[in-house]
């Protein structure tokens, strides 16, 4: 007798790390059979269970289940009735269990009705699964937790020409118009790494031979017609495989590695064992459709998911509180990989920009949480910049403190100890400590304390004794649930420059010899004092080189910033000092506007910009970009969105005007005359050239807009076309509508390119933008079921500070409307959109009330998802 157990409204409840208990039962093997049909798919699961010796001997068996229809349940061949088990809201409980048995569970699911894109769903007529974090329970009843690791065999029966799962495939058997194939995965894994893909897909194939001689068949599966956009993904995959062998000694461990691309996907990509599933955005690229940023994103995400094969899959997480064990470490690994593919310095600058924009902002708001949170309501809400990007910074700091060779030994020890286990962050740190001999116990506070430490420095030089004293002070502001903060162990990579900008050898009191280059100071207390001896003349300190710790360093005098920007040997500090100097100029302009005066651009800023023009192009482009409006907002107690916008526009206008001739000359020399290539130097040239174009238009030169339009019309690659379109979309001119229209006509049928068309319009700083976004939500190509399209239009709009925060509240209203419309069908994505509204505390009272009212409207929604409830309730508090 079928019993319906569709969990609709799970009461929001906190799950706590402190409550962790091992599973009552382990499952050694899982055998799955899928009979695929869009409306009615049946799943037969055969589970071999045995009681966990680490759990109480009489414990009941709990299986998670959601949106399932139970058709049949047998134990060792004997059908169980509802007196033997209870269906509960979130699953199924069997109280009386033998020590070992086989359960056979038959369930029915409806993939085409699955709009949450979690579990088994249909996209574009094909079948895909997404099981992380808790989607497997939407496929069958199962202990959906990562510390239950099993060997899987998966049989797929359907009419589809392509049927993929984890591991290695067996032969395909044809019967009538249907076919069946069985995949065997020899490696034990948690159920969140299960995957199934089936449909009318085409593949691009290649081969890789591992260092020890294992031949691996590689496949990228896409929709028919997309075959010509897979080359970059395939190349990135092979480069990643080689890099992991060379840098970490890690080889691939199956005979096949497949990637399948899907256009409806909640996140970027997923590391399922042997069958990664990717958002098309991170697979498909050719020069006419993808920008340099897209190409770099693909390389990074392909690497990230591939690297999970060891950091995540072979060694996995004991529970979801350990999420950063795999994510922080894997982000660190993909960052290092990408740094090795191009300019390390420019890569680091980009990563730090991203960290500040997403993670520092998270740390400063109501959703601040530690890299290892202590509780959550919905785990999907914790795939955050803190867990991923701050987690990666914490790994990087460990590598900095113990040194690269010890870090590699620590990785080796981690795999030697924990291969095929589900472990904790603590196990990882222990391996690093044991391999290095460095005590990391105090360092672990980085995992548990939320908030961004702020450091300030004070220095004195005594010409009589030739001593230089550097005092570093640190503090961290309170975050929700953590009012009192402790000092962190902060590695400060630094050097000293003499008056000519030459790097000095440094010798701390007690050092046997002076050290020539960058050295690491460890700040461990509220205040640390470092005494340097034999310092010939008053030095300028260069601090936090390569951004050695995720902290805020402020208070350096503008003249020191300009000096460092011009002279330091560390490119990160050069860039950073230039940005901080620019920010101080812009904030002075904001203050002038607030005082009712006209903002005047400091000539020193224009001079600093001019002096960056002849630097290496990729670096120059980074240095030329003024701090963004949101990052200026982060430096204000009460954000003044309009004054920030005006100040930045004024400075861009002044720079564009003053440097017009130089910018135009540089623009003309930086052409792709050797032909279009996608490599670091070529990307750097395009990026600087487009920065020049943007300043030329900002400067208001009469030739500039036509120049941008000409680049748009003739640009042979998407980087140049889109840069021109973005520039035009910021100017009220007839060319804007012409270009947008032409772009739409050209790319109407291409979802990923059409996303760019939506995003560009949402990002326009012009006053009509909020209305334009509202209208675009009604455009026939807008689709609330496609997360990429929602992000392209509506999330981009939230990143448009001056328009999203319009005093009328029109921006907040349309944004909250979208969350309200989306929550019933995709709670995961709706919840992830809430955080911009949670920034209300940083704004004036008018905007505060408007934002709070929208959060309240969301919270009042009947049947609100647990995911969105968690984000909105925490954001309003
Ligand atoms: N593990 C994935 C990654 O970082 C993240 C991910 C993909 C995910 N899809 C998801 C997380 C869905 C939550 C829900 O590579
Ligand atoms: Zn990941």
Describe the protein.
The chain is α+β, with helices and mostly antiparallel strands. The protein has 27 helices and 33 strands. Strands 1, 3, 4, 6, 7, 10, 13, 15 and 16 form a 9-stranded mixed sheet that branches. The chain has a 5-stranded mixed sheet with strand order 18-19-20-22-21, with helices on one face. Strand 8 (86-88) and strand 9 (91-94) form a beta hairpin. Helix 6 (404-418) packs across helix 7 (425-436). It starts with a strand and ends with a helix. The relative contact order is 0.06. Residues 1-10 have low confidence and may be disordered. Bound molecules: tryptophan and zinc ion.
Largest sheet: 9 strands, mixed
Unreliable residue stretches = 1-10
Mean pLDDT: 97
Query: What is the beta-strand fraction?
Result: 15-25%
- Strand-pairing-aware structural class: alpha+beta
Beginning-to-end CA distance, first to last residue: 46 Å
Bound compounds, each kind once, are: tryptophan, zinc ion
Radius of gyration: 28 Å
State the helical fraction: 25-40%
* Basic shape: globular
Number of strands: 33
Number of helices: 27
């Amino acid at each position: 007798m079928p019993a319906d157990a569709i969990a609709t409204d799970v009461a929001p409840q906190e799950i706590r790390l402190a409550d962790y208990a091992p599973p009552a039962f382990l499952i050694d093997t899982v055998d799955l059979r899928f009979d695929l049909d869009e409306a009615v798919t049946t799943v037969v699961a055969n589970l071999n269970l045995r009681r966990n010796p680490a759990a109480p001997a009489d414990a009941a068996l709990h299986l998670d289940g959601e949106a399932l229809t139970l058709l049949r349940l047998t134990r060792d061949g004997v059908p169980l009735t509802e007196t033997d088990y209870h269906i509960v809201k979130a699953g199924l409980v069997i109280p009386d269990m033998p020590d070992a048995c086989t359960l056979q569970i038959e369930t029915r699911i409806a993939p085409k009705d699955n709009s949450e894109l979690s579990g088994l769903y249909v996209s574009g007529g094909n079948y895909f699964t997404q099981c992380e974090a808790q989607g497997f329970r939407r496929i069958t009843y199962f202990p959906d937790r990562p510390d239950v690791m099993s060997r899987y065999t998966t049989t797929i029966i359907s009419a589809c020409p392509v049927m993929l799962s984890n591991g290695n495939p067996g032969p395909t058997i044809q019967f009538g118009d249907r076919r069946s194939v069985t995949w065997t995965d020899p490696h034990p894994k948690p159920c969140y790494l299960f995957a199934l893909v089936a449909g009318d897909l085409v593949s691009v194939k290649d081969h890789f031979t591992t260092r020890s001689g294992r031949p691996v068949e590689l496949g990228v599966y896409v929709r028919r017609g997309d075959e010509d956009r897979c080359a970059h993904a395939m190349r990135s995959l092979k480069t990643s495989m080689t890099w992991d062998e060379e840098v970490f000694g890690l080889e691939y461990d199956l005979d096949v590695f497949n990637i399948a691309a899907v256009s409806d996907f909640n996140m970027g990509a997923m590391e399922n064992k042997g069958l990664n599933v990717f958002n098309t955005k991170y697979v498909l690229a050719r020069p006419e459709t993808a920008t340099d940023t897209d190409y770099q994103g693909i390389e990074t995400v392909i690497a990230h998911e591939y690297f999970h094969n060891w950091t995540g899959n072979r060694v996995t997480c004991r529970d979801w509180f350990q999420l950063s064990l795999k994510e922080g470490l894997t982000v660190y690994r993909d960052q290092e990989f990408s740094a090795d593919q191009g300019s390390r310095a420019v890569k680091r600058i980009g990563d730090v920009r991203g960290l500040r924009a997403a993670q520092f902002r998270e740390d400063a708001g109501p959703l601040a949480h530690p890299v290892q949170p202590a509780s959550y309501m919905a785990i999907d809400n914790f795939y955050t910049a803190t867990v991923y990007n701050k987690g990666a910074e914490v790994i990087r700091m460990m590598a900095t403190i113990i040194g690269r060779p010890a870090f590699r030994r620590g990785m080796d020890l981690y795999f030697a100890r924990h291969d095929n286990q589900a472990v904790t962050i603590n196990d990882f740190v222990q391996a690093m400590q044991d391999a290095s001999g460095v005590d990391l116990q105090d360092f672990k506070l980085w995992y548990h304390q939320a908030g961004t430490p702020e450091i300030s420095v004070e220095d004195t030089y005594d010409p009589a004794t030739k001593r230089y004293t550097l005092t570093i002070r640190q503090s961290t502001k309170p975050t929700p649930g953590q009012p009192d903060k402790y000092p962190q162990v902060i590695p400060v990579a630094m050097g000293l420059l003499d008056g000519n900008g030459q790097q000095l050898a440094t010798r701390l009191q007690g050092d046997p010899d002076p050290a020539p280059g960058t050295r690491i100071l460890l700040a461990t207390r509220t205040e640390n004092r470092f005494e340097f001896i034999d310092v010939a003349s008053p030095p300028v300190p260069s601090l936090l080189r390569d951004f050695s710790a995720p902290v805020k360093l402020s208070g350096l005098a503008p003249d020191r910033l300009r000096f460092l920007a011009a002279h330091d040997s560390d490119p990160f500090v050069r860039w950073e000092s230039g940005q901080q100097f620019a920010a101080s100029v812009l904030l002075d302009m904001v203050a002038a506007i607030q005082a009712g005066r006209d903002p005047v651009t400091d000539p020193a800023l224009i001079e600093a910009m001019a002096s960056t023009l002849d630097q290496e192009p990729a670096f120059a482009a980074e240095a030329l970009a003024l701090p963004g409006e949101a990052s200026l907002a982060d430096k204000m107690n009460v954000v003044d969105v309009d004054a920030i916008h005006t100040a930045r526009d004024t400075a861009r206008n002044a720079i564009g005007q003053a440097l017009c001739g130089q910018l135009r000359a540089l623009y003309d020399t930086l052409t792709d005359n050797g032909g279009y290539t996608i490599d670091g130097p070529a990307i750097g040239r395009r990026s600087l050239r487009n920065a020049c174009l943007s300043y030329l238009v900002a400067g208001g030169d009469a030739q500039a807009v036509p120049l941008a339009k000409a680049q748009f019309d003739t640009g042979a690659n998407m980087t140049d076309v889109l840069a021109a379109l973005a520039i035009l979309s910021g100017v009220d001119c007839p060319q804007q509508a012409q270009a947008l229209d032409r772009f739409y006509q050209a790319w109407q049928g291409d979802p990923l390119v059409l996303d760019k068309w939506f995003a560009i319009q949402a990002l326009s700083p012009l006053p009509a933008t909020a209305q334009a976004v509202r209208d675009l939500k009604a455009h026939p190509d807008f689709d609330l079921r496609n997360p990429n399209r929602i992000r392209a239009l509506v999330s981009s709009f939230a990143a448009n500070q001056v328009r999203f925060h319009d005093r009328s509240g029109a921006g907040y209203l349309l944004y909250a409307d979208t969350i309200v419309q989306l929550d019933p069908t995709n709670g995961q994505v709706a919840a992830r959109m809430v955080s911009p509204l949670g920034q209300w505390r940083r704004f004036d009272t008018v905007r505060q009330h408007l934002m709070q009212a929208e959060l309240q409207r969301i919270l009042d929604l009947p049947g609100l998802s647990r995911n969105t409830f968690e984000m909105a309730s925490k954001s309003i508090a």
